[in-house]
Amino acid sequence: MNADLDWRVYIKALRPLGRLHFVRGVPNPICFPVLLLLDGQKSVSGSPVGSPNTISQMLDFIEEHQIKPVVEVFSFDQVNEAIDKLRNGKVRYRLILKW
Q1: Distances (CA, A) of 32 to 10, 18, 38, 87
Q2: What confidence tens digit (pLDDT) does each residue in 69-98 have?
Q3: Closest by Cα among 24, 29, 25, 21 to 45
Q4: Helix H or strand E segment including 19
């Protein structure tokens, strides 16, 4: 499920000449001051999927920097608690049910 985020925070986090690239739609239009792009010559772009080369570079970067996903894990005996959290919009990032 997509969520609205404070895109200004993401633009500010980019290094000079950095790019925020969307590979999936977001629920509402993104909104931020253009000055955030001008400061550091940052850019925003989008495509339906990344190229195989880009995906390979991303996976190499993730491995090199030991980047891990942020998840909440629930066992199946906690399924009702997990579903309540999901219904109430309180899940951050990913919710996982494990055996």
Answers
A1: 10, 16, 12, 29
A2: 889 999 999 999 999 999 998 988 889 999
A3: 21
A4: strand 19-22
Report residue 89: phi and psi, to 5°: 70, 30
Residue owning tokens 């000055």:
35
Q: Please name the residues in contact with 30: beta carbons below 8 A apart, sequence gap of 6 or more.
A: 7, 44
Assigned fold of 1-67: Rossmann fold (3.40.50)
Pairing of strands 43-46, 71-75: unpaired
What is the domain partition of the chain in residue ranges? 1-67, 69-99
Is pTM beyond 0.85? Reply is no
Q: Report which of 83, 23, 77 is spatially closest to residue 47, judged by C-alpha positions.
A: 23
Q: Provide the pairing of β-strand 43-46 with 19-22.
A: parallel
